[in-house]
Each structure stands twice: as C-alpha cells, then as structure tokens.
Amino acid sequence: MNLKELTNISLEDIYWLLKAGRSKKKVNVFDLRSNLNKYIKNPVFFLSTGRCGTKWFSDLLKHNKSLMILHSPVPNLAVQGKFAYEILNYNLPTDSEKNLLKEIYFAGREQYLRYTYKTEKRYVETNNYITFFAPILAELFPEAKFVHLFRHPGEFVRSGIRRNYYSTNNPDDIKRITPQNKHQNLNWETLSQLEKTAWLWNETNLFIENFKEKHSSRCQNFNFNELSVENVNSLLTFLDIDISKAAILKSLGKKSNTQIQGSFPKYEDWDQDQKIILKRTCSDLAKKYDYKI
Q: Which pTM value belongs to this model?
C-alpha cells in the first residue's frame, strides 16, 4: 500500500483491513442487496444449540485463508434469533414477517457480506445465534449449505447450568427461547433449571430437524461426540473446503472455548432422578443421534 492509498483510507477501511484482509474488489451495499447471490457464493451456516464445538470448528477453518469465518460477530443477533424462533416455529409466516427477518439479518451482516466479496472470500458463519434464521437464510442464499452440529444432551445441559441458563434474574436469558404456551402444554415457571435447559437442547434440535426435512440435500449432520479425522474430513468434503488431514489431526488435540465457570457434575455422575428428567425431555432425539441417556 503506497502513501497515496494510506492518506485516502477511512477508519472503516482500516477496521475491515484488520478483520478481513485487503480488499481486491469493489461493491456497495445497494448492489450487494439487489443481487446477493451474484456476490456471495456458496455460503456455509452452522446450526446448533451452541456449546457443542462451534469454536473448535471456527479455529480449524482458519487454516483455509479463503474463508471469512464468523463465530462471534457483532451484533451476534442472539435476541433477534429468539424473535425469529417465535415467528417461524409454530406459524406460517407472512411475507411481511419473512421480509422483516431478512432485514434484521441484513442489518447485522451486510458489511460482513460486503467485505466477504471485496476480499474474495467465502462466507462461513458458525455463530449459533443464527440457527433460528435458518429458513430465512435458505431463501436468501439458495446455494448455501448447512451443518447441523450437535452434542450429547447431558453434556449440553451440564454446560448450560454451569453458565446459569434459565437461572433466577439472569439478564442473559433475554436471548434464550421459551415455550410458546398456546402450542406447548408446559407450566414453564414450575420447571427446574435442569428441565428448562434440557428443553432448550430438545427444542433447538427439533427446530433444526424440521428445517432439514425441507432442505435435506443442503444439510449435513455432525456429531461432536464423534470427532475424528475421518468424520471432519467427510464434512469438509461436503462443504467443498480444503484443509489438510495433518491440520485436522493437530486440531483434534486442542480444546477450544473450554468452560471454567460454574459447578455441576458430569452426566455420568448425575443421580437417577436427574437422568430420568433428561430422558423424559430428550429421549426421542437422543435416540436419533445414537446417544444413550
């Protein structure tokens, strides 16, 4: 970059230079929005409950420098994702509602998408908070592929309780879904923290399962409890992402986003009553994913 280029660069350009790399092409937001699929080719979205390997995959995918990887973007669209769930999960959304959700997504991502094109990269979002936007993303990006990432429900519940999911007066719960009582016969306020967190695992994965029924050819499952070179390589082949087996093997020995806060026993150390609660809530999907509970 020469002196003339440096004097003309804006703070926005500096920010995105550091975040995404040097721009090689030009596009404005208006052109991007009017012809999105011309500029954004074959994006990838990871759908999950969170706390199930998204950070590990984000770190692995960084080995491929042609990818724009979003694990913790700002804004993360967490609260907006809950709003998407409430609109999409039990209702046939109107065109106005779908357009509203598209605009919400664009508001949070249009610059990321713009600089994905400008830096000649491929868009990959591992951020679990976009999970409930999946039906909208499938419409916006007809070439997109989706990864359903999941983990043993007992492990997820333990992690959630250690992070105070659904605890009394936890302001962070504003982003967590709750039952729509007119559709689910649950007395939510009487449920324990374990029951609520188990419901979250089941409800989120059920939402993803319903989405996959309509877009099966564009989706691939990944069981994070069966992490191996072979399984990771198979997923990367489906996504058409090139990362060496040596890099995958090296990553297998690394822990990402390890939790240190909170205290709750490992699933194998739960008492029988706790395991019965989990089984009552999660048994059907746990069986589908070959988990013993």
A: 0.95
